[in-house]
Amino acid sequence: MGTVITTDALTKQYGAKKVVNHLDLQVPGGSIYGFLGPNGAGKSTTMKMILGLIHPSAGEITVLGQKMTDENRLSILGHTGSLIESPSYYGHLTGRENLKIICTLKDVPEKEIDHVLNIVRMENQQHKKVKQYSLGMKQRLGLAAALLGNPRLLLLDEPTNGLDPAGIQEMRELICSLPQSHGMTVLVSSHLLSEIDQMATHVGIIDEGELIFQDTLASLHEHSRSKICMKTTDNVSCIPLFKAAQIPAVLKEDSVYLSCSDDRTVAQAVRMAVHNGIGVLRLEEQQMSLEDIFLHLTGKKVHI
User: Fold this and answer.
1) What's the fold here for domain 227-286?
2) Taking residues 221-237, what's their average pLDDT?
């Protein structure tokens, strides 16, 4: 499907501060692109620029093969859906009545309402007034509104914010189903690393307005260096033994960590320990979490 969103040196500056700084995004068609970064990193500002809600200070945006301009913005947005920050709704109206208003605004047939309600699993709550909805139901109503018109591109800004664990799981499953079942490309932002890890096929990491990583999720995990955690009956004595054999090892808490994980080296370490009367109680391969990778890339912890 090619690239659905491309930004070229996209920049937004307020006074002397560059909130978004020369951002070059490449969002492949049919992907779930996880836009990851701490709160205040520039994610929402970028998404608003892609939707034409904020004018860039510099740079270009191409959406669905067309360069975004004031003249063609509305025609491009006719093929997109979005849920930015909190969903808007009329609390005194029912969920279905709210969606009817969106249909009028989008010039979409009302018969689509049943379809989107089915996607977000809200058929049984459609006749309740929205002010009686839980936060999770309001988020799902916002997603239903974004899906009206069967958009080719969906932009979701922190869609799991404020949801309970069950709501997060439901929203995650919905998002993951959209590319395959409806042919959509999804750009989803989050500061929750675990969420992106469970949803995305591609990842862009933004920090202080700058893109510090962009590739597939699998490629991001290749940045993680696996290590072997070895628990023995005498961890302290293992360290000089391993270092003498040039096996990199450190003592941490109640375990020995080998920074190399190839089978030959691990087998050698186990043999050396046993040969010297040290019992090996447990061996475990550990990989860097997404949080660890972020720390490795940025030099600081992400705010979760």
Assistant:
1) Alpha-Beta Plaits (3.30.70)
2) 85
pLDDT level of residue 223 (50, 70, 90 thresholds) = low
CATH 3.30.70.260 domain span(s) along the chain: 227-286
For the chain, residues classed under CATH 3.40.50.300 are: 3-222
For 153-203, how does the pLDDT look when each residue is reduced to its tens digit (9 = 90+)? 999 998 887 778 887 888 888 899 889 888 899 999 988 777 888 899 999
User: Side chain identity at 229, as an amino acid letter?
Assistant: C
Sorted by sequence, the CB contacts under 8 Å of residue 226 that are 6+ apart come out as: 261, 285, 286, 287, 288
Q: Name the CATH superfamily, with its identifier, for domain 3-222.
A: P-loop containing nucleotide triphosphate hydrolases (3.40.50.300)
Q: What pLDDT shows up at residue 301?
A: 55
Maximal CA-CA distance, the chain: 78
Q: What residues form DSSP beta bridges with 204?
A: 35, 214
CA 267 vs CA 138, 226, 233, 254, 284: distances in Å: 55, 16, 17, 20, 13
Helices (H), 15-57: 43-50
| Distance in angstroms (rounded) separating the CA atoms of residues 91 and 123 | 18
Phi, psi torsion values for 82, nearest 5 degrees:
-150, 150
What letter represents residue 155's amino acid? L
Position 231 scores a pLDDT of 95
In this prediction, residue 303 carries a pLDDT of 47
3-state helix, strand, coil in the chain (%, to 5): 40, 30, 35
Contacts 24+ apart (CB under 8 A), 274-279: 276/237, 276/241, 278/232, 278/233, 278/234, 278/237, 278/238, 279/232, 279/233, 279/234
